[in-house]
Description:
About 40% of the residues lie in helices and about 5% in strands. Strand 1 (about 65) and strand 2 (about 70-75) form a beta hairpin. By secondary structure, the protein is mostly helical. The protein has 5 helices and 2 strands. A two-stranded antiparallel ribbon has the order 1-2. The protein has one domain (about 20-115). Helix 1 packs antiparallel against helix 2 (about 35-45).
Amino acid sequence: xxxxxxxxxxxxxxxxxxxxxxxxxxxxxxxxxxxxxxxxxxxxxxxxxxxxxxxxxxxxxxxxxxxxxxxxxxxxxxxxxxxxxxxxxxxxxxxxxxxxxxxxxxxxxxxxxxxxxxxxxxxxxx
Length: 126
């Protein structure tokens, strides 16, 4: 069986971190079982892609500072993420920091894509 969206990592430290998940989408949906809106954000922001077919980190089309499956903006968040122990360029670090960001700011950091994932009820921190 061919996977349509395999977990692909150029970083050996990510190998084996994803349990039974066989795709980035499965990993993200499992990781955010308790906050499914973040899985929908990932769907809209990156179509559940963290790396492209060449193994490069997925970057935003409008803003190339947006990286990874959760499209975290490195200009605004990389220093804070690094200081908190999150590597935005790994799948695990990207989704982990997104959860941290959500806990602090709700879905506001992803408001530009709300037309895709939301109905306006999720902008406040839950």
